[in-house]
Amino acid sequence: MASHSLYRLVRLAQRLLPPLIASVVVVFELALLPYRHVDSLLWLRLGFYGLVGPLVTYAVLEWIAQETLEKVRAERALEEANRRLLAAGRVFREALESENLEEAVSRIARALGETLGYPVALEAEGVHAGEECGGMRVELPGLKGYLEACPPEPERVFLEVLAHEVAGALQSVVARSRDRLTLFEVDQALKAEANLDRLLEGLLERIQAWAEAEGGGVLLMDEEGFLVPRVVRNLALPSHPFLPDGVWKGSLEGPVFVDEETLALPLKARETVGVLVLKGKGLSRRIPFLSFLASQVALAVRNAQAYLRAEELAINEERTRIAREIHDGIAQSLAFMALKLDLAERLLAKDQEAALKALAEVKETLRAQIREVRRSIFALRPIDLERYGFLESVRRYAQAFAEQAGFRVQLALPEGVGLSQASELVLFRVLQEALTNAAKHGKPSRVEVELLPLGERGARLVVRDNGKGFQNAEAQGLGGFGLTQMREQVEARGGRFQVRSEPGKGTEVVAEVPY
């Protein structure tokens, strides 16, 4: 530092110049002594120049030294202030760039040590980083932890201020981590649950936990514009549908407080589908993120409603198919058997051999139709996936269906798959449809059912038969939902669907769904 070097130079001059001046005066006067008379003026000059001059020089240099020292102290104070400001700035910068609390504590402790120039240790919520030095320690306000430092000149006030800055930065990291965790949990809940009521219960539980709310509820709009309570927890809400008026009407447009501690937010996804209600303290400062979560709930409600409508359409399509099969299959066979029985009745007295042949045809047709009816009834019978689990349900269904349809089944199933309930249901529907198509159209003697986990990507179901096969599989609308409907269900889960078939070489149905 230039000022510090100048101060040392002035102090050196203060020690050397006065004696040097006095020595020069004495030497000069003594050198001229042979040429002068020794009188009182000689001693006066020696006393004046030899004493007063050095004293004045010393005093001037002392003043310069003091001014320089003040400048050095001011520069040091300014440098320390800048270092402290830089340390505080780095605290927030490191916190903003950190993904989690562990990373933030480590980066902040390292940054403080580098910026302040002395050992710093930091501990927050059980996470420790930095160099322990046994120095001054201050608690972090609002967090379980402390800040420890070993400055050359301990100053508790500064460390307390710094601890407040560190605590604020770490609390922002904790809050950001909580927000991300809540979003992740909400996203997982949306993927894992197809039942609307259970979905809303799970979402409400996570939102309540994030907002630290003591009560909550979800109300949905019905077709007539009534608000219908679907999930309510610790809230004094009507248990019956009601028309939104007053504050409830306002809640369909934006966040409003029903009372001092009860917040209502609209569930909007292009249009309002309901209201999210939360009861607790400090909800006003959480409104922006709660509004975002409410929009996620709204999307979940719309998707669930669309899924229900799709199921209704599928049921209607299945009913239409069953009616068509009865009309084209069983009804025509019954009509055929009725005609044959009439013919046998007329031939019984004239041609018993022909009558017996007609009765044999009736018996064969009847047996075939009984097998077809039993197969259709079994295919329509619901399977309790929750009771037996996905893999056991696949095993039971495939074996029982093969027994009903009259072919052998070979199973290759893993010990477990980590699919969501919705993905399991889609694969099970594909299995049902593929087996039904094989029995009805392929007439195989053997069917292979293989289920393979695909690491982190999901699972693959393969149903392969040695039946008759067919040409142009994509164009054939076979089975309950047909190949097109099976493809749509699989692709709606983000998966892939493929059918490979050749006449005389059997058929292979492949469906992949993600975790």
Number of continuous helical runs: 12
| Fraction of residues in β-strands | 15-25%
Give the ordered list of helices and strands.
Answer: HHHEEEEHHEEHEEEHHHHEHEEHEE
Number of strands: 14
**Overall pLDDT level:** 77
Coiled coil: 349-376
Pfam family, one: HisKA_3
GO molecular function, one term: kinase activity
Domain Histidine kinase: 321-515
Write the layout of secondary structure elements.
Layout: H1 2-31, H2 40-96, H3 101-116, E1 120-124, E2 127-130, E3 136-139, E4 145-149, H4 156-192, H5 196-211, E5 215-221, E6 227-233, H6 247-251, E7 256-259, E8 262-269, E9 271-279, H7 287-347, H8 352-380, H9 385-388, H10 390-405, E10 408-412, H11 421-442, E11 446-453, E12 459-465, H12 482-492, E13 496-501, E14 507-513
Parallel strand pairs: 10-11
Antiparallel strand pairs: 1-2, 1-4, 3-4, 5-6, 5-9, 7-8, 8-9, 11-12, 12-14, 13-14
Characterise this structure.
The protein is an alpha+beta fold. About 60% of the residues lie in helices and about 15% in strands. The chain contains twelve helices and 14 strands. Helix 2 runs antiparallel to helix 3, helix 4 packs antiparallel against helix 5 and helix 4 runs parallel beside helix 7 (about 285-345). It is elongated, with a radius of gyration of 45 Å. Pfam families: HATPase_c, HisKA_3. This is Oxygen sensor histidine kinase NreB.
In short:
This protein is of the alpha+beta class and 515 residues long. Helices cover 59% and strands 17% of the residues.
